[in-house]
Specification:
This protein is of the alpha/beta class and 367 residues long. It has an eight-stranded parallel β-sheet. α3 links the parallel β2 and β3. α4 packs across α5. The longest helix is centred in the N-terminal third of the chain and has 15 residues. The N and C termini lie far apart (41 Å).
């Protein structure tokens, strides 16, 4: 369903640039005894690729990167890169605090593995330090890392530092940065940053699902966020079809669903992926609640799931074996798209399983 679109997009890309599309923020599977589950990590890579993702963001906040050792960060990135085997791009974080010289040394190690080493924006200057300090430190990092491709991630932890359009323009025009994961979540800022950062190799990926359609229409390169660990094929479709008549309906569904899936994330993602045949996820996490969420908000989202169940928009090719590029994958189409990887058992949504009286009782319970 998606390969034709992304192949066409890739044909127009310049050498050394990253592809347009969806870069999931990869979760790290662990065993119950707190070791990395390499077998499940391999299956996860295959699933992302089968769902149409064009890149993978390994060693990120979703990966519980701050709870991985230096060696584990390198091993996870290496395993993902080797498993991807050139089918998709792989990026990974490479700056974790300390003197710039030490951070640069690790960037060089990670740069020997992945397609771009992502600079955590909040690691280039202390909270409260001005942009001039940040810019000076980034310049020093670039000087110490040769010609390696770099990326940017406005990571919310340990503190949330956002780049101005002017700083992002400076990074884009340096020719060194090929990836940017934006977390500002504000339309005006997103628009200004996309406009300022126009450069042949620079790619702008929005992390905020609620503004994905808007940012794609403004010229963003795609999406890189947590919900790609739940239904990446839907995000792939939206990024590929921003002008489709159903795009707004899909965007609205994604916006509501995001507030549900982020509850107790990344444990929620690991539990969800156990619905797919071929995965044997433990829900064990080293860092629970990457995005803390209130009980009240959770009840609100459950209320919306029950009263306004997600709308499934689907379409099919004119004949068997053909695919309508603009179709939103339902259960059957998901199986066709993701046949190479684990397939999901399709549970009926809560809204369909409950009788009207049961819905009322559940709503009362949630209030």
């Amino acid at each position: 369903v998606f390969s034709g679109f992304w192949s066409a997009a890739a044909a127009g890309e310049m050498a050394g640039s990253l592809p347009f599309g969806v870069f999931p923020t990869m979760i790290t599977p662990f065993t119950d005894d707190n070791q990395i589950d390499w077998r499940t990590l391999d299956a996860l890579v295959e699933w992302y690729i089968a769902c149409g993702c064009t890149g993978l963001f390994s060693v990120c906040q979703s990966s519980e990167m701050y709870n991985l050792t230096k060696e584990e960060r390198l091993l996870v990135a290496k395993r993902v890169k080797e498993r991807a085997a050139g089918r998709v791009a792989v990026v990974a974080s490479g700056t974790f605090g300390g003197p710039i010289a030490e951070q640069a040394a690790f960037v060089r190690e990670m740069g020997a593995i992945v397609d771009a080493v992502v600079v955590l924006v909040n690691q280039m200057a202390a909270e409260g330090e001005p942009d001039a300090v940040w810019k000076s430190n980034v310049q020093a990092l670039m000087d110490a890392t040769g010609s390696l491709n770099l990326g940017l991630y406005e990571c919310p932890k340990p503190y949330h530092r956002l780049l101005s359009p002017e700083l992002l323009k400076w990074c884009a025009q340096s020719g060194r940065f090929t990836f940017h994961k934006d977390t500002c979540c504000v339309r005006a800022s997103i628009e200004a940053k996309i406009k300022a950062s126009q450069s042949p190799k620079f790619r702008f990926y929005n992390a905020n699902v609620a503004t994905t359609l808007m940012s794609t229409r403004l010229g963003a390169s795609g999406f890189s966020g947590i919900s790609a660990n739940f239904y990446p094929q839907i995000l792939v479709w939206l990024c590929a079809n921003p002008s489709h008549e159903s795009a707004h309906r899909v965007q609205n569904w994604l916006s509501v669903a995001e507030n549900v899936v982020m509850y107790k994330y990344p444990k929620s993602a690991k539990a969800f992926l156990n619905l797919f045949d071929g995965f044997t996820f433990s829900t064990h996490c080293r860092a629970c609640n990457v995005f803390p969420f209130s009980v009240l908000s959770t009840k609100f989202c459950l209320f919306f799931q029950i009263v306004f169940p997600p709308v499934t928009t689907s379409g099919r090719g004119a004949e068997r074996g053909g695919a309508d590029q603009a179709a939103v994958p339902d259960g059957a189409e998901h199986a066709a798209v993701c046949g190479a990887g684990p397939s999901r058992r399709q549970p009926r949504p809560v809204s369909e399983r409950l009788k009207p009286v049961e819905k009322v009782l559940l709503l009362l319970l949630l209030l």
